[in-house]
Amino acid sequence: MSFSPGVHVYSEIGPLRRVLLHRPGKELENVTPLNMEGLLFDDIPDAELAAEEHDKFAQVFRACGTEVVYLKDLLAELLEEPARREDFLKKFLVEAEVYSKRCPYLLEHLMSYQTDQLAETVFAGLRREEFSMNTFHLADNDYADLFWFDPIPNAYFMRDAMTVIANGVAVNCMWSTTRKREAMILEYLHSNHPAFAAAPRYYERNENAHIEGGDVLILSDKVILIGVSERTEATGAELLARKVISDPDNTIRHALIFMIPRKRAFMHLDTVFTMVDRDVFTIHPEILSTLEIFDITVDLSGDTQIKSYGSDAKRALSELLELPEVELIYCGGASMIDARREQWGDGANTLAVAPGEVIVYERNRITNRLLREAGIKVHEIASSELSRGRGGPRCMSMPLWRDDI
Known about the structure:
Helix content: 25-40%
CATH superfamily of the domain at 154-402: L-arginine/glycine Amidinotransferase, Chain A
CATH architecture of the domain at 154-402: 5-stranded Propeller
Structural class: alpha/beta
Number of strands: 19
Shape: globular
Largest sheet: 5 strands, mixed
Mean pLDDT: 94
């Protein structure tokens, strides 16, 4: 590692110094017409082109002065040591729901891999055609399943499985079984890798309430925003809110809750709402009339206090961020047809690298024009293949360190 350990994120917009990414690889080659729905894909991306697009995404960070850290590299560092490699693989095969009789054979096979190959295979999955067990269990001869364990094609959406909050992390309880291995990998890194040394954990992946990082925004050093959506339950939002705002070692004391419609088009809050400057936000206009907004605080006796803002996003944001007013930029502009098209293409899913400076998909031309007209500096990236996974620049990145503002 070339940097000091620890994490530090007290805003959505502070200058971004370090970011965690996962470059999509062979896992996308293992998405097929038969398994794509279970793997949460609506279409099959071109793996090579997706990787090229992602490389250009990473280059934008570097040009902005942000250090790029790759998830696979962190995992590979841990897997170099044989005892830790064996420990990780035993946990991983259980999490992958591998038939128990197969585990010893797969463990022995995977232990023989070179480290980089093993780290790649963890994400890519293992095809049956790549390894023969030569055993006599009936289940081993059921070729309806073409994989010994499935690929993890959603891993390039780094935002969801783990969330950096202040100087700690939440390892999230994922909504879909197919994404639980992502949280397991990040939990293992948090527990064992020096990059996360001393970072407290605000949430556990085995909590009995779903929450995902696309629903968590750090608005300021005093306010966290949590969405209740298709993939984050109200109970999960409240559990995380109480843990964060009750921690005396950080300065966050308000948890703003946005309850949005629970449907795939709006799977996470950041698909309909992001912060681009101190007082400027993108929002999908379709959610404005359906929003339910609450502010959670904890009093000195430890009791939860809840204040309702109805659906008034501007009032909630301006009051809690102590601003005279805020500007909402409509994704897609005034036309609901354009708004729905560009929201589906992640027009509202911006990623700030500094106050008033964001990375966006180039395909959302109306939203990008409106951002520029509002004085926002816009870095556009190609997304013909990356967007097929249903996520934008914020979804694909996990800030590890932001300067305070």
